[in-house]
Predict the structure.
Amino acid sequence: MDAFYASVEVRDNPALKGKPLIIGSLPNERGVVATCSYEARPFGVRSGMNIKEAYRLCPNGIYMHPDMHKYRAVSAQIHEIWNTYATASERIAFDEAYLDVTEQAGDFEGARRIGQLIKKRTLEEVGLSCSVGVAYSKTAAKTASEEKKPNGYFEIPTPEDFVNLIIDRDVRVLYTVGASTSEKLYSSGIHTVRDIRENPEEVVRILGKQGRWIVNIANGIDDRKVTPYRPEDAKSISREVTFQKDVNDYELLKDVLVLLALCVEQRAKRYGLHGNGVTLKLTYANMKGITRSRLTPACDNAVMIYHEAAGLLDTVDKRPVRLVGAGIYNLSGEEGRQLTFDDIASGAKEQREAEMKRLLDGLQAKYNLDFAGHLEQIYQYDILHKTVEYMRKHAKK
């Protein structure tokens, strides 16, 4: 999709059309740019940029919080259209996927028709433009999809075509080559794809196994299959929040962990997963991040996640905190879950529910919150963030 979040907002409010629109945090908040309209990009604004830097570059832009609930609904629409044409669909994000259309297309002419149909239906049925790349491999298809953005279409039929297209471009054109990897290559005088092809041993020496992969794709070699995403293939499930002002109150952090644990539980149950370990993530005011973890019995409920994460919080240095997160790891499906004594014991579920009610009642009394009939909204990131900020502002000093 083309500037997905921003495009959805423009579709729903035509008055925003043609204006530099930045989706993410507001200029007076902490945070980053999630995405921006193409009108904002000539100012130097880009995804992942600190919001204050974006405001310095584009002070007259329109800044908006993301509406994740709305974007999720639109995402379901577009993926439903795309999946119609594929034997396998590998969803990369809300707005992006690899599609294997080999069987339906038969040849490149058929793939071309499918690509144009996808563009046409996405625009007509969802009101948004997308860019399509048709190619012999995943790496080439990704490159092709970005070649003519926005509302683009591009083909890369063969490895030779791929190499000829990118050979004199910066190494960062290649999949997996980010800022850190590119700096390592630059330091050895390797700046372009041509340099990689001419110095394969040096690339492998610098980067090891990743270097061999990069040498391969620089030569157009990529035989990865389109693999449908399965939630159980994820390594972890987590949720985190960034505070607008640093937090010194560790009791407040524990209260926030209650809500984060609920979010993790909701996602785990949606996919029928449980973890065999709990993690706590903190970023301190000086931007130093730490992660603490603890192996546990099968864990998929918020009460256990909360108590384990809170216990981990007791072990860390007590310094001002910018971000807090909680999660589970070592994921398995329900079919592999071993029953614990608590599962078998009479009333274990009722005890957990009573404990969570006690925790939520405590938050309601402490911060004057009202979860009655609204608790499911806490799973939406914007609602979670607003609730946490409300708690921070109303915490006892």
Notes: The longest strand covers residues 236-247.
